[in-house]
Amino acid sequence: MPLTRRDFGLLATMAGAISAAGCASTPAQAGPPAGPAHPLGPVAQIDAGDLNVGYTEAGPPDGRPVILLHGWPYDIHSYADASAILAAQGFRVIVPYLRGFGSTTFRSAETMRNGQQAALAHDTVALMDALGIRSAILGGYDWGGRTANNVAALWPQRVSGLVAVGGYLTVDLAANLEPLPPQAEYGWWYQYYFATPRGEAGYRRHTKDFNRLIWTNASPLWHFDDATYDLSAAAFDNPDHVDIVIHNYRWRLSLAPGESRYDADEKLLATRPAITIPTITISSDFDGKAKDGSAYRSHYTGPYQHRVLDGIGHNVPQEAPQQFASAIADVATHIN
Predict the structure, then answer these.
(1) What is the mean pLDDT of the chain?
(2) How far apart are CA 162 and CA 69, in angstroms?
(3) Domain ranges for the chain
(4) Which residues are paired to 25 by β-bridges?
(5) pTM score
């Protein structure tokens, strides 16, 4: 059965590892930083496709483009330190708010508040077009990792390198209909909560408390401070945030429809297309026994390496900014 992020709990019962040549392990650190050491630059706005996108930019304008995509329930501040590190190395680093976060808004009140994976992939390409970027290195985790993978699968000519936390996260709707063992299902409790009217009302009423709980559970060794959380929590005040989040998770479980204009893209993604561009995948403690990356190794057919970060939770770029930035720099040289 095709693997999605939802399957990681099931993989706790599976054994296997990729070859030593394709997997590097990083020893445990003293602990992730409580907060970012660098501020992000000012947020700019640009019309791109369906959206008016808020984004930050760092580094020389003529540097090699890198686009870093955040996840849920996080925001652009996940990349404050990694962005500064890469900018100092000469990269042009662009970090956009995803739809439903921060200052990114819809250009039309009539556009569906759609959280399906193909919509987010189109957002990324539209941003590249608006900024005049023909090809870029993409990096991401969670929603951002899935989006980066999907852009690389749908438009490989637009992606010169990929750093994907969690590996091949593309959603297969048919596979997601299959039940998992109870312990695996337990890890996705919030998806079932969001499937109910009570869950939608609860998330709308308690958004910031809910998301802080997710931060804590997903990164138990990350002792982030209040100021760090507040930096990102402001992004959840976006007027479309709850609608996008609820639709994203209901769509994954086939409880809400997507848009027909994305049907061809979703049909292609359902075939689990190989990613041919240079790629580094990263796993952390969040992935449990699946952190060896063997389950998705076959989906990457170009230059490839898998890296394991011990002592790090789900928000890899913020918890391990130097390691994440090093992966971007290494994939830029085809993992030499």
Answers:
(1) 92
(2) 11
(3) 5-332
(4) 308
(5) 0.91
